[in-house]
Structure formats: C-alpha cells, structure tokens
Amino acid sequence: MKNFFKNLFFLLKNDFDLIVFSEGIQYQKIYIEIIKILSTKRIRILYVTLDKSEKLNLKNVTILTFGKSVFRSILYHMLKGKILLTTTPDIGNNEIPISKKIKDYFYIFHSAASTHKLYNKNAFDNFNVIMANGDYQIDELKKIEVFNNSKKKNYLRTGYIYFDYLAKNKFINPSNLNPKNILFAPSWNKNKNNLTSAFGKSLIGNLLKSNMRVIFRPHPEQIKRSNKTISLIFNSFKNNKNFLLDTNESNLNSLAYSKLLITDNSAIAIEFNLIFQKPVIYIDYKDKINNQDYKFLDIKNFELEIKKKFGYVIKCGNNDFEDINDIINKAEIDFAKKKYLLNEFLNKNFYNYGSVAEVASQQIIDHLSE
C-alpha cells in the first residue's frame, strides 16, 4: 500500500514525453535499445513495469513498479504523457485500461507472427500507432481494421527489433556446443489437449533413446497453466544427463546451442530459421487459433508461409516418434537445400534489419515533434 501511494503522488505531479509499459523483464529486450537512444535526447521517459526484478539506470529515465496490487488500475488511469509504447496487446480490453491523459498508444511487436490468427480479435483496436515488422503486418491490420470497424491507425515501417537483439547477442562459446542438442519448444494454447500433454513425453523419450541431448523449453504460459504436465515430464527424465528443462527468461542460449528445433506452432521457429539459420521440424498436431474470425479475413498466414518454405512438416504417427532419428536426418538434408534463400527472404519481408532501434527512436522523436 505504501508503494501504491508513493506511485500515485508521483504520477499526479508528473507527465512524460514517453511512457514504456512492460509486463516483465523478459520484454525489456524489446525496449532497451530504443530507450538508450532516446535517453540521450532530453526526452522525459517513464518506464512502468509489473516486475520487481526489472532495473534501469539511465539518464532521463524514471522507473516505477506497479506490481500486482488490486489498486493498480487506478495508477493506469493516472498515467500522463504524449506516447505510451508497449508490446502488450489487448490494452483497453483486458485489466489494463486506457488512460485519457495519454495522447497516443504505440504498439511494437515481440513476435514475427501474423496478426490475425494468434492474437485476439480486438488485440490492436485501441492503439493509435503500430510499429510494424513488415508489409505483411500492415496489410493484415488494415483488413482487420475494416472487419472490426475500428479506428484507423498510423502504420510505421519499423522492423522486428528482436531479430536485431538476437543477431547482436548470438555469440556461441565453442566449449558449450553439442552437435546432438535438440530444442523441443512447443507452443501454448488455451486447449488442455496440446502437443506437450499428448506427445511430449514420448517425443522426448525417443529423442533420448536416439542418443540426442534434449532441451525442453515449454512456453511460460504453459508452465503457469499446465504445471502438472510439465512436472510429469520433468520427473520422468530429470535423472537423464541428456535432458534439460529450460525455464530461463531468455531463450537465447537454447536457440544458440541447439542444432535443430522441434515445435508445432511456436513463433520461436521464425527466429530459429531466419536468424540462427538452422532447421525446424514442425509437428502437425493442432492449429493455434485465438481469433476464430481469421478465416473470414482472406489473409495469408505469414508463419505458415515460412513453415512451407523452410520447415520440415511431419504428422503425429502411431509409432510415437520411434523413427525420430531418421526424421531429423531428413529434415537437415531438406533444409540444407533451402538455406541459401534465407537472407533474401529476411531482407524482403522485414524492415530495417540491423538498425531497427535507430529507426524506431527517430519515429518516436518525429511523432513527439508533431
């Protein structure tokens, strides 16, 4: 309560050029390079986080922790500023209300996926400005805008900043390399009957039998909502030296030190393909759909395009992946034939690869000067 009143009095007295809203430290990598640039420009920046572990020590940047207090909705209404930047969708439709004291809400992406299928129907309706990864998202969102009869937005050609983060930080220590590392990173969905619960144990078991080293990285939401399933898998293999459960906030090491990824619908596959340029096996189990109206929008699915171009798709068979070693060999051979196309595809479909933070910062500066 003491922290609540301290934040309340602070917000009543102050307003900012830019407010950055973060749900947790795992999202700081999306904002940090932009904030570093803007903090040198005499721009007043407020960084609001729900995570007590988040720290920032930058000039012209104030950090406030809202925590998970039942009173925090009051604090959201007290926010005053010209721009609020976030990678949290559905603002105004969830527990995070819109503040009338903020002029413009900016959205920046933490995923390279399409916007019409994996996100909720109205996920972007309350934003004024969208900092898009590429043309595909702008085309999608303009159609969604019409379909939802929502307000028109300003679309910026920004780029996917997480690609730049990975490319900059993907240093690999040769001593940690293991040519048998396989990353199993299934997607999360609201259906309790998912790839992890149905086939996770048998897949990992057969990978280990094939003398592979398995890095199992479940989605954070899956850990939160299906802890019994994750615990069952962990307890089944915890004594096997070739099994690792990765629950780290960052997926960087798992991506860097794995030779191949196995998933169903996780958008992590896009980063693994395009930035680390390594093969992905997609298990065709169940589609991940958060917007049931996506089928009426007549929009091509971007992650499906990547899956068809660069992925190796298999179905869940009756043998429960007993032939997984042969599947991996075939996937690697297939990917080697396509690998030369990756850089062209990346630069064609994503804006400003390698300089997204600089572009995004200038776009914010330009907007503040309007």
Q: What topology, given as strand order, has the largest sheet?
A: 3-2-1-4-5-6-7
Question: Roughly how much helix do the residues carry, as a percent range?
Answer: 25-40%
- Overall mean pLDDT score? 92
Radius of gyration: 21 Å
Element pattern in H and E: HEHEEHEEEHEHEHEHHEHEHEHEHHH
Query: Biggest β-sheet, characterized?
Result: 7 strands, parallel
**How many strand segments?**
13
Percent of sequence in beta strands: 15-25%
- The span between the termini is 39 Å
Uncertain parts: none
**Number of helical stretches of at least 4 residues:** 14
What structural class do helix, strand and pairing data support?
alpha/beta
The best one-word shape is globular
Q: Would you write up a description of this structure?
A:
The protein is 38% helix and 17% strand. By secondary structure, it is α/β, with parallel strands linked by helices. The strands form 2 sheets. Strands 3-2-1-4-5-6-7 form a 7-stranded parallel beta sheet. Strands 10-9-8-11-12-13 form a 6-stranded parallel beta sheet, sandwiched between helices. Helix 1 packs parallel to helix 3 and helix 2 crosses helix 14 (356-368). It starts with a helix and ends with a helix.
